[in-house]
Each structure stands twice: as C-alpha cells, then as structure tokens.
Amino acid sequence: MPRPPLRFAGLIVGLLLAVGATLPVRAEVPTQAYQVVHAYPHDRTAFTEGLFFHAGALYESTGLYPSSVRQVRLEDGEILRRHDLPTVYFGEGLAALNGKLYNLTWRNHIGFIFKLEDFSPLGGFSYPGEGWGLTTDGRRLIMSDGTDQIRFLDPDTLAETGRISVTADGRPLDQINELEWIDGEVFANLWQDNRIARIDPETGVVKAFIDLTDLVPKDAGLDPNDDVLNGIAWDAAGKRLFVTGKRWPQLYEIRLR
C-alpha cells in the first residue's frame, strides 16, 4: 500500500492529539530503595563468585587461583570449612540442591559436584559456554553465562531444560552474573554494575533494579574494575537479604523498601 501524503499523515496525528489519544511510551524499569540493617565481616581475600545461605551459615565460592568453596559463619566471617579447586580452574557460581553442592567454573566448561555436609567430591558435569552464576528454585538449577541468557538445568542429568532472555525496557540485558532465587524471582548481579536486577523467571523481564552504588564507603580501598558488587544470599526462614562483593571488607544485610 502506498504511503499517504505527508499532509494527510500530519492531519491524522493532529486528530489523535485533539481527541486525547497518546502514542505508546516505553516504561522505564523502576529502581527500588533499600536500607542497611547490619554489616558483618567479610574476608578481604575472597573474590566472591557465588553465595547462598543455608541452615544458619553462608556458603561462598571464590574465583582467582586457587579458587575455593567455603562454609562461612555469618556473625564473624570465620571460614568453617574450605575446599580448594585445582589451580587450573577459576571458580564461579555456587548452589545447593538435594544435599549436593554444585560449583561452576569460568571458561573450563566444567562444573563440580560435592556433598553439601562435608564437601567430599561426588563428580562433575560439563556445559557449553562460560559459567558465571548459579542458583536453584528447589526443582531446577538456574545458570547464567555472562550473556542475556539464563539457563535451566535438570539437577540429576545436568541437561539444559530451557532458557529465557533477560530484557530491561524491552532491550536485552547482558552481563548477568551471580544469581539468587527469592520468593519466585531471580535476583541477579550485573558484572561491573552497582545494580541488582529482579527478573521474572517466566518472561525474563526485569521488574525492578536495586541500586547499591552508595552501599560501600568511598574510602574502602576497592579496585573499581575488579572489586565489584557480586554475591546475593537469601535467608528464606528469617526473610533476610545479604549482599557483598569481590574482596569487600563487609557483607551487608539489607531490607528492600
């Protein structure tokens, strides 16, 4: 169909405005406020990649070499149990399901499985692409790879069963990093970004951002390129939300408003 003359198209727009019609406007993702409830000590050598809360303790995976998997006491940051990965592996996301601890590696395409109660090795698994963040909804493992994609894995076969594309304001949002499942949503760190994204696990749409730019004092001596926000843990029983970062001196309990 040929386009109408410009004067005719202008008349149509004028009529729409005259009757109060509006053209669609893309809604911006809202930013959610927070308050700090408490600050706990955090190991300044821990290059945090994965974090979750289970049975009164924190579980944390670290990157760099050697990378490690740790059980940490919340109150004072003391390491209660630690297992170092072979030095060829750069550790990434961490999650626990059905008594097993799953740990990703960055570019080795290999994940490790440990017994949750004592970190004894149970085997491994492989996957295409990079490994970044890992969490669980109680049925599936949920994995990020640094892109805008979030994968869902069967915890028994470790096969991919589905995936979603994460979008914010209708545009793909990549650099999805550490993950946490919280009350039916996926909370995600964004690499080198001070925001946490709240993601709808069905659609991939970001429902809100939590901007933590002012969480850490400016004089904390952090490297802005490496010592970035990364690490989300949720105490489902106590309804407590914890966040930290790579080599941060503290782990923070925050409350969303």
Automatic annotation (TrEMBL):
It comes from the Bacteria. It comes from Brevundimonas aurantiaca. The keyword Transferase applies. The keyword Cell membrane does not apply. This is Glutamine cyclotransferase. One of its GO terms (molecular function) is glutaminyl-peptide cyclotransferase activity. Keywords: Transferase. InterPro entries: QCT, Quino_amine_DH_bsu, WD40/YVTN_repeat-like_dom_sf.
